[in-house]
């Protein structure tokens, strides 16, 4: 009985050829190597994609954090702006007309007039309405208007003697600049402004702040001037 490797024949017409078998094995081996290389390449590609996605996720996370911080700052800025627009600086009650109770338009010296008989600042609208009704005196207290500086000074002095802070502040200006028959007297003006400030006059605090800060008529004292300005601001 022949053994493999000899001229073994079975179902064929020719001798058994080893070379085709080797070629087949080589082809199969090559295919296996190629499959392995493709698998490794796909794995590396998957890793690259995963790393890219991870990097993208990190980048997206950082962008989200940065955007969240930006949004928070924007929201805070919006809240501050809304607060400023809603509140802002309040006007003093002394800026209201005592007749119609509306705030006098700015600038106040163009839209209202001080009546020295009662030291009330009345808007020109109420003054016009009073005039149209035939009244010629003060729109607030109905006192006839003084005809000269002597009468005006007497009216103001009457209010000063009663401790009216606005009247004291008013006459301080007349001493500082000279007016209503009064000679210019800066020390007296400062003395009266100090008294008016103690009684709560905001304008007196402002004037004292300016004079002490700049050394106008008094020895310069910036801290004292700032304190007066702070009182005026409050």
Automatic annotation (TrEMBL):
SMART domains: SEL1 (SM00671). The keyword Transmembrane helix applies. Pfam families: Sel1 (PF08238). Keywords: Membrane, Transmembrane, Transmembrane helix. The keyword Transmembrane applies. It comes from the Eukaryota. The chain crosses the membrane at residues 20-40. Coiled coil: none annotated. Gene3D superfamilies: Tetratricopeptide repeat domain. This is RING-type domain-containing protein. It comes from Thalassiosira oceanica (Marine diatom).
């Amino acid at each position: 009985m022949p053994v493999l490797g000899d001229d073994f024949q079975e179902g064929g017409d020719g001798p058994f050829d080893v070379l085709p078998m080797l070629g087949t094995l080589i082809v199969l081996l090559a295919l296996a190597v190629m499959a392995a290389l493709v698998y490794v390449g796909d794995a590396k590609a998957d890793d690259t994609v995963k790393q890219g996605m991870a990097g993208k996720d990190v980048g997206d996370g950082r962008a989200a954090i940065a955007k969240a911080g930006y949004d928070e700052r924007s929201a805070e800025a919006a809240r501050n702006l809304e607060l400023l627009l809603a509140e802002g600086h309040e006007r003093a009650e002394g800026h209201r007309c005592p007749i119609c109770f509306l705030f006098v338009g700015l600038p106040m010296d163009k839209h209202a007039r001080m009546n020295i008989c009662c030291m009330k600042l009345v808007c020109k609208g109420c003054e016009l309405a009073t005039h149209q009704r035939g009244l010629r005196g003060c729109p607030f207290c109905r006192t006839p208007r003084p005809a000269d500086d002597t009468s005006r000074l007497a009216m103001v002095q009457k209010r000063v003697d009663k401790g009216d802070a606005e009247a004291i502040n008013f006459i301080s200006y007349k001493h500082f600049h000279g007016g209503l028959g009064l000679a210019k007297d800066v020390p007296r003006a400062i003395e009266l402004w100090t008294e008016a400030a103690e009684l709560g006059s905001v304008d007196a605090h402002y004037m004292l702040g300016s004079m002490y800060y700049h050394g106008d008529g008094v020895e310069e004292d910036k801290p004292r001037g700032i304190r007066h300005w702070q009182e005026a601001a409050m």
